[in-house]
Amino acid sequence: MNTNYQESTFQHVLESLPLGLILLNTEGEISFCNVQAAQLLSMEVHQLVGQAAGSCWPPLATAIQAGLEQGQHSYGQEMRGTLAPLTIDLIPLEQGLLCLFKHQKQTRELSSGIHKEVEIILDSSFDGFWICDSQGTVLHLNKAAEKINDIKAKQIIGQKVEHLVFADLIDRSITMEVIKTGKPQTFAQHLKNGKKVLSTGNPVFDEQGKLSLIVVNERDITELNKLRYELEESYKQIEGYRSEIDSLQVRQKVFSKSLIRSEIMSRLFNLAIKAAHLDSTVVLQGETGVGSREFAQLIHHASPRKEKPFVYLDCTAIPESSLELELFGDERGEGFAHHSQPKIGFFELANGGTLMIDEIEALPLYIQTKIQHFLQNQRVTRVGGQVSHQVDIRIVVGTHENLESLVREKKFRKDLFLRLNIVPILLPPLRDRVEDIPPLIEHYLNKFNACSKTNKTIHPKAMDLLCCYRFPGNMLELANLIEQLVVLVAEDCITEEHLPAKIRIDASWLGGIKEQGWKLPEAVEKLEREMIQEALEKHPNQRQASKVLGIDQSTLSRKLKKYKIQLKA
Asked: Which residues form the Sigma-54 factor interaction domain (predicted)?
C-alpha cells in the first residue's frame, strides 16, 4: 500500500470524525484542522492553519502552554464567543498537542456514558451511584447520590472529584484511590452534611486493559450507626438500672425504719420522707462512709420521681478536665470525630428523676457557675452545642465539708450555696448513733452470709466490742469489716478473738464499764467525753482537736455543748 493512499485514508478518517480536531506543533501553531473544527469555530480551514493557537483562543493560552511544555492533560475546558458553547479537551502528543472540540450538548450526551434504561435502573436504587472517567471527572450520579450528599447532579457532572474534597463536600475521595491503585477500594466517608457513608469504588477497564471508568457505590449508614448507638446506650441504661435495683435492695435497707434505733436517725428519717415529697434541693453533709448515697436513694424512692432514674456522680472519681463533659454532655461526641454521636451528660441522663452530685466541694468554680445557671432555668447546653435542652430533675448534693465555711473562704460560690441549701441534713457518724450498730451488724451479716452461702453468727462479747469501737470509716468501714469476718473466719461463730487488734484493744476498758453496770449509751458518752477532754488538753484549738479526733469542727462544737465542756481561756 503506497504512502499517498495511507495519508489520503487517514485524512478521510479525520474529516469523518463527529467532532472538531486540531493538531498543534511543538511551537503551539495549528498544523492541521478538520472541517468540523473550522465549522464549530465559524472559520475556514485555511484561516486557522499556521496560526498560533494561544493568540486565537486567549482563555486557553495557559492550558495550551501547560500541555506543550509539561505534558499536562486538560479536559472540559469551556470556550464561549462561538455560535454555540464549546468544550475542549487538550491531549499532549510527542510532537505537539491534540485539541478536540465538542458542542457542550454533545459533551453532556457523551458524559452520561449510559443508556436511558440503565439510568432508570440506577435511579431506582436505594444506594448512591457515581460514574467517573479515568481522570476523576464526574459523568453521572443517580438520585440516591443526590439525596445522600444534598447536591444536584447538574452542579456536579463535569467536575473533578478532587474539587469535591477541596470544597469539603467529602473528607476523602474513593475515586482518586481507585485511580491511584487501579484496584477496588472500600472505606467509610464523612460528608459535609454530617452523614457517614460506606463507599465501594470499582475500576472498569477497556479492551486494551486501560482504566476507562470508576463506578462508586455508596450507602448511607448514618441511621444504622445512630440506631446502634441508641441500642448500646439502652443496654447501658438497662444494665445500670439492673445494677441499681440489685444494690438498692441492700443499700436502701441501711436507712430503713427497721434498722434505726437512735433518736437522731429517727428524726432524720422522718425529715427525709417529708423532703421526698418536695422538689427542693437537699444538701447531705457528713464524714466519709456515713451513707450519703444511700440516704439520697431513700429520698428518691420515697418521692414521686421513684419510677425515674437515680443517677449518682462522684466528683472526685472523674478527672477535672472531663467533669464538664460528664455533667453537661458533649454535642461533638467522643473524640470529636465526624461520625460520633452527641454524648449525653449526667443532667440529661437523670431527666425526670434525681441527680446526686457527691463531694460537690471538689467542683471547680467555673463548673459551679454552670450548675448555678442550670438551677435558674432548668436548661442544659452541651459542650460545643448551641441549643439548650429542658431538663426536669431533682438535685441532691453530698459533701464532707461545711459549705458555708467554704463560701467564706471563697472556695465555693455563695449564690450556688444559697440555691442548694434549701434542705440541709447533717448525717451523724456511726459513733454518734451507737444504738444503730447492732441492727446494722445483723443486716450486713445476713447480706454477706447470703453471698458466701454461709451461716455465720456473732458472739455477744464481739458485738459489745464492735459497739464501743469508734468506726472512723463509719458504715462503710463496718460493712467491709463484717464482709472480711464472714469470708476469713473459719468457725461459724465470730468471737472477740477474731476481731482486729485495734478493736480488741478496748476490751479491758469495756470490762471495767460492765462491772459498774453502765448501759451502752452511758459508756459511749463517758468515752467520748474523756477523749474530747484529752484532745483539748493537747490541742486547745478546736480545729486541731477535731482533726485529731477525726470529726468535723461543727460536730466537736455540738459535743462540747452536749457534755458542757468549757474551753480553757
From this structure: 258-487
